[in-house]
Design brief:
Layout lengths: L1 H21 L6 H12 L12 H21 L3 H4 L3 H25 L5 H10 L5 H10 L8 H11 L1 H17 L5 H29 L6 H20 L4 H13 L6 H26 L5 H28 L6 H9 L5 H12 L8 H26 L23 E6 L21 E7 L2 E3 L12 E6 L8
Antiparallel strand pairs: 1-4, 2-3, 2-4
Helix pairs in contact: 1-2, 2-13, 3-12, 3-13, 3-16, 5-6, 5-8, 5-9, 5-14, 6-9, 7-8, 7-17, 9-10, 9-16, 10-11, 10-12, 11-12, 14-15, 14-17, 16-17
């Protein structure tokens, strides 16, 4: 037990410090953590023997719950709304087009069976949100024309569609067409969206009206409701990943208590989940087996980058009259990542006969994509003159805080003040306003959430905008 804890702590520390060293160069966290996993794996320096695909599937599914939830939670709806239509089309029709083209290529050129080719296409069809977020944030890459928001929404919302396609193809491979794919897809979408919206509305109602007294309980409540949403969806045949993404969008763009605390908590939790997921996937791989699949993997990678992704992007964004240089850039930023590798593991544990080494093919495609596309993305953005210097890319995330001047004001609590007789938690003080100090009977009190506000109290408030404050 103790050696395992030491190893786990060492791995996390290596992930943290390696990210610190390489983050500034725009190298996505995915690549760093995957490579570390490979170094610790069977063919690596540490030589840890690990090939438990079932365990990885279970842990990966759990990690993806919070990664996808935070993908929605961290998206700023106000900045994303103007580009929501092309984003959704890319996340849905774009994924389908990409999957079909790669599936056709695998069938015709690489001589796989039709269904196995379509399986490869479905698995690699979605783009990786973690890599996109990492590059935009680390290089402070704000893009013109709402491109940053469009890429964030697309990459954050297209994994559920790719997952649905993967399960659909696997179902056809296992039942020979006896199961209705149309009804299965309909159930995934209807139940996934339905449970997601219902639980999000319920959670918002509870978070706005119920006081849990202890600040930490709010994060525990949201964690529980996210896990419940995913589990309920999966139980009734819905798309759990779609459910938690919708919940993330709604909760992340609603004014609720301790919003900043929730953002910071889920940001840290998402990073831990990414470290565990990416490292474990690297640990599961066998680099010695990659030479055997290098030719088909390289061909699929090149076809995906230069044919399938551009065909999907140009075919969809042409309807929205995007300039050619913007379509070129969006085509290039379609990086594959951890979700594709996880879906490949789903295929291996589904119980269908697969002739090709799909796991290592997809693993290489993801590595190649992140290493080449991820590294060259900042350079391409500058060459196409798509970088906007006057604004910050962080405005596209809900945890962005503008560098505005802070002000202090004093508010006296009288008998007519709606805060009178309430605790700070119950007072529903607007987000962004901090009660720095309370002056009471000649004394200064440093308040907390349970501090009761009394007649005659003088509150010292800090903030940028005091609209809604009862003066």
């Amino acid at each position: 037990m103790i050696p395992m804890l030491i190893l786990a702590a060492t791995v996390l520390l290596l992930c943290v410090f390696s990210s610190k060293l390489l983050y500034r160069f725009g190298i996505p966290a995915l690549l760093i953590f995957l490579v570390l996993g490979m170094l610790f794996g069977s063919d690596g320096i540490a030589g840890i023997q690990f090939d438990n695909y079932s365990l990885v599937e279970t842990v990966s599914s759990f990690c993806l719950i919070f990664i996808m939830f935070y993908g929605g939670f961290g998206t700023n709806w106000k900045t994303a709304k103007p580009v929501i239509a092309p984003s959704i089309w890319l996340a849905t029709a774009g994924v389908v087009i990409t999957a079909l083209l790669v599936g056709w290529f695998s069938w015709i050129v690489l001589k796989t069976t039709l269904l196995e080719g379509m399986l490869v296409g479905a698995v690699v069809a979605s783009t990786d949100a973690a890599s996109v977020f990492s590059i935009l944030r680390s290089r402070k890459l704000n893009l013109k024309g709402g491109l940053a928001s469009m890429l964030e929404v697309e990459s954050g919302s297209n994994d559920p569609i790719a997952y649905m396609l993967t399960i659909a193809v696997l179902t056809m491979m296992s039942t020979n067409g006896e199961t209705s794919i149309v009804s299965m897809v309909a159930m995934q979408l209807i139940f996934g969206a339905g449970v997601g919206f219902a639980l999000a509305f319920l959670s918002i109602f509870i978070l706005k009206r119920i006081n849990f007294e202890i600040e930490g309980l709010y994060t525990i409540y949201v964690v529980a409701i996210v896990v419940l949403g995913y589990a309920l969806c999966q139980q009734i045949g819905g798309n759990g990943y779609l459910c938690v993404y919708i919940m993330g969008i709604m909760l992340g763009n609603t004014k609720i208590k301790y919003k900043r605390t929730l953002v910071h908590f889920f940001d840290g939790l998402s990073w831990i989940m990414q470290m565990i997921l990416f490292f474990m996937l690297g640990l599961l791989s066998f680099p010695s087996q990659i030479p055997a699949i290098i030719v088909p993997a390289v061909l699929i990678s090149l076809f995906l980058i230069f044919v399938a992704r551009p065909a999907a992007v140009f075919g969809i964004l042409s309807w929205f009259k995007f300039p050619t240089k913007e379509k070129l850039f969006v085509s290039w930023v379609g990086m594959r990542g951890a979700a594709s590798i996880v879906f490949a593991i789903f295929a291996l544990t589904f119980g269908v006969g697969i002739k090709n080494d799909v796991f290592h093919i997809v693993f290489f495609v993801a590595l190649f994509s992140v290493a080449v596309q991820g590294t060259l993305t900042p350079l391409l953005a500058k060459k196409l003159k798509l970088v906007e210097k006057d604004n910050s890319v962080f405005k596209t995330f809900t945890d962005y805080q503008d560098e505005a001047e802070m002000h202090l004001i004093e508010v006296t609590i009288d008998t007519r003040n709606p805060w009178n007789g309430r605790t700070l938690n119950e007072a529903n003080i607007p987000e962004g306003i901090l009660v720095v100090m309370i002056k009471r009977d000649g004394q200064s009190i440093v308040p907390n959430g349970s501090t009761l506000l009394l007649t005659g109290d003088v509150l010292v408030l800090s903030g940028e905008n005091f609209d809604g404050i009862p003066l």
